[in-house]
Amino acid sequence: MTDRILDFLRRTRPEGPCLVVDLDVVRDNYLAFERAMPDSRIFYAVKANPAPEILHLLAGLGSNFDCASVQEVDMALVAGASPDRISFGNTIKKERDIAAAFARGVRLFAVDCEAEVDKVARQAPGARVFCRILCEGEGAEWALSRKFGCDPAMAVDVLDHAHRAGLVAYGVSFHVGSQQKNPHAWDAALASAAEIFRILSDRGIELKMVNLGGGFATRYLEAIPGEGEYGQAINDAIRSHFGNRLPETIIEPGRGMVGNAGVIKSEVILISQKAEGDIRWVYLDIGKFNGLAETMDEAIRYPILSHRDGEATPCVLAGPTCDSVDVMYEKKPYPLPVNLEIGDELLIAGTGAYTTTYSSIAFNGFPPLQSYVI
């Protein structure tokens, strides 16, 4: 929550729910990552928030970009990134999309199985590929799933297959889980990566790069490590497992780059009870389908601010749509002021990442979440 955001809301009084992102915070976050991990190239995860203003700022600062689709590749190019600063980091790609990215000059692709390698070999001959491996996500709000990545032992064969198919077997990637609050979570994955490097070296294939992925946390209600703490732990683990033969490394911050730069303005549209003496239900003009999808399973608990002072009591917090799953906090009700009234504005902090991109186009007819970048 910055004075610039508060001043913008006071001056403009935007109608309806909206996200406001402060570019000064994004800039500070980028520079903090640079200081914490000076030997790693930064590939911003475009999916976190693809606002053109954010991409343009980061491109000007020298950032690279992790893209999940041809559309995101085009966004990065329009923002000023050259193709050599773009990674097609999705392991699940249509063959024609691989060809389209290759035609645009992209030469770095993620894979996690031999079938994906074959697609890249056909459509992007000579490209560099890195294989994503499965790893534990203990300590993360979301450990992620088995949808992406393969067993580390299988990655050896995947990269060997890429080499024999005429591609450049370039490296290994992993993701230690979203909103990872344990700076040491990278250690075990780096141990696996180093073993893959050693086995392939014995086969005459010299890998070059480790993609350390994302997972860097942003501040919600609980304290989190700073960029420096992450950097120290990760760099120590790299040296521990790779010794003097240090690989190239890249990081893919998304949430950690933009999460704390954004605030959503919302409005209370109803306060009610289901039975006499029951807990209050507070309904907002924004919910899971309008940008707050990450409240699913109540995984992310956003800081919520009200101008009302005084005593607070637990409330069930729900969205406006005609869908019974549109409830953000019920298993663990959220404390809100007793004197909260219909029509009051609430500010939801830490919402710069994964809000506009998760907002539906027109579910129940509601428009997508409006975004302002200042």
What features would you describe in this structure?
There is one protein chain. The protein has helices at 3-12, 23-36, 52-61, 70-79, 95-103, 114-123, 152-164, 186-202, 227-242, 255-258; strands spanning 18-21, 40-45, 64-67, 86-88, 108-111, 128-132, 140-142, 168-173, 178-180, 209-211, 248-251, 262-273, 280-284, 304-306, 312-318, 327-337, 345-349, 370-373. Helices cover 30% and strands 25% of the residues. The protein folds into two domains: 89-253, TIM Barrel (Alpha-Beta Barrel), CATH 3.20.20; 260-373, Beta Barrel (Lyase, Ornithine Decarboxylase, Chain A, domain 1), CATH 2.40.37.10. It is elongated. The longest helix is centred in the middle third of the chain and has 17 residues, at 186-202. Helix 2 runs parallel beside helix 9 and helix 5 (95-103) crosses helix 6 (114-123). The mean pLDDT is 95. The chain is an alpha/beta fold and 374 residues long. The protein contains ten helices and 18 strands. The strands form three sheets. Strands 1, 12, 13, 14, 15, 16, 17 and 18 form an eight-stranded mixed β-sheet that branches. One of its GO terms (molecular function) is ornithine decarboxylase activity. Pathway: Amine and polyamine biosynthesis; putrescine biosynthesis via L-ornithine pathway; putrescine from L-ornithine: step 1/1. Its EC number is 4.1.1.17. Residues 26-258 form the Orn/DAP/Arg decarboxylase 2 N-terminal domain. The active site is at 322 (proton donor).
